[in-house]
Amino acid sequence: MSAQSDFNAMIADFFNDDPQTATYHQYEQGFYSTVSSKYTSVQVDTTVKVITLDLTRNSNGLSSKYGTDILAGDKDVYMSPMVWGVMPFRAVLENINFPDTTSDKITISGVLYKVCNAKVLDPTGASPMLFNFLVRR
Q1: Distances in Å between the alpha carbon of 57 and those of 51, 111, 134?
Q2: Where are the alpha helices (DSSP H) in the chain?
Q3: How far apart are CA 115 and CA 97, in angstroms?
Q4: For 115, what's the count of Cα atoms within 13 Å in the CB-facing half-sphere?
Q5: Where are the alpha helices (DSSP H) in 21-74?
Q6: How far apart are CA 12 and CA 17, in angstroms?
Q7: Which residues are CB-contacts of 27 (< 8 A; sequence separation ≥ 6)?
Q8: Given its phi and psi angles, is residue 33 left (phi above 0), alpha (psi -120 to 50 degrees) or beta?
Q9: How big is the CA angle at 80 (ends 5 and 18), to the nearest 5 degrees?
């Protein structure tokens, strides 16, 4: 087995065994208001499954993830828009766009986090998408 296939199996096991439920918040451009001369934004909430890990900084206090400095309290989040454990994997959402790190947020265990950095991972080598986020309160 390769390191990639080991990682894929580990992520699939996590999502099958003990994922948390979270709410992913994205904002879409709504209608144009002639009164305010602005576009409104519409919040779209999607229930997703996540695995949340604590991030640790190096002993000198400096560290980064995807080029963003890690601060105390930041979390490493793996988010799946898939139903795990069902073969073949099925997409359960149509409305999650690629994460927008300027506006997207996620609520995990009642705590609202801002998505600071995002990367798309492909844990099966096929169609399911897995997002990896650096999130911050």
Answers
A1: 19, 22, 13
A2: 3-17
A3: 14
A4: 24
A5: none
A6: 9
A7: 41, 42, 43, 44, 100, 103, 104
A8: beta
A9: 80
Give the chain's count of helices (H) and strands (E).
Answer: 1, 10
Instruction: Report cis status (omega within 30 of 0) of the bond before 88.
Output: yes
Q: What are phi and psi of 16, to 5 degrees?
A: -75, -35
pLDDT of 89-134, one tens digit each? 444 444 566 788 889 999 999 999 999 988 877 655 554 567 889 9
| Structural contact between residues 115 and 65, judged by C-beta atoms closer than 8 angstroms | no
Encode pLDDT of 31-90 as tens digits. Answer: 787 888 888 888 888 888 898 988 876 666 667 777 778 888 889 998 876 554 444 444
How far CA 70 is from CA of 22, 62, 86, in Å, comes to 22, 7, 35
Fill in the DSSP letter of residue 19. Answer: P
